[in-house]
């Protein structure tokens, strides 16, 4: 009985995620979720009560993934140079974006049209504890490499996020317009990564 309950609950969660990613919060209905999960509306109500509760669970899980992408934490190697550290952070974030295209599209749409979701995203990027931890690591590496510690970690992370999202959009446009003949996707991605690193390194060279 318990296994059956878990199976039904998981089906509803997976259906809700697919609906939210495809249609956003406003376009998703409980009827669409139950149809996709092949369960009754009564079962959805039994486990989650409302669409809002399902959405809250979905967003909480996805924001946790985004936070891990923005703040690599223990993955950083303190022996790397400052430039290689910046490159690792930028590549770590870009890899997440390219591996989760539907999530990125969803977040962009929700942020544009929903102020509450936009502010919630800012809370992740500007998380005081995470920012302070990463700032301390980067500051120590910068000082060791002779750059000093005078930099704004929040601005640095936002610059990386903005640049990588622009790269993500560029990939979509290039595919739509068949522009690989001018520059291969791999070459373009490497160029964009290095441009992002150079953009951040300018902050430390001032």
Helix content: over 70%
Shape: globular
* Rg, Cα atoms, Å: 20 Å
Structural class: mainly alpha
Tell me the major beta sheet: none
Count of alpha/pi helices: 10
- What are the secondary-structure elements, in order, as H or E? HHHHHHHHHH
Please state the average pLDDT score: 87
Total beta-strand segments: 0
Low-confidence stretches: none
Query: Could you tell me the strand content as a percent range?
Result: under 5%
Termini separation comes to 64 Å
Descriptive account of the structure:
This protein is an all-alpha fold. Helix 1 (2-27) packs across helix 6 (101-113), helix 5 (82-99) packs across helix 9 and helix 6 packs across helix 7. The relative contact order is 0.10. The longest helix is centred in the first third of the chain and has 26 residues, at 2-27. Helix content is 81%, strand content 0%. It has ten helices and no strands.
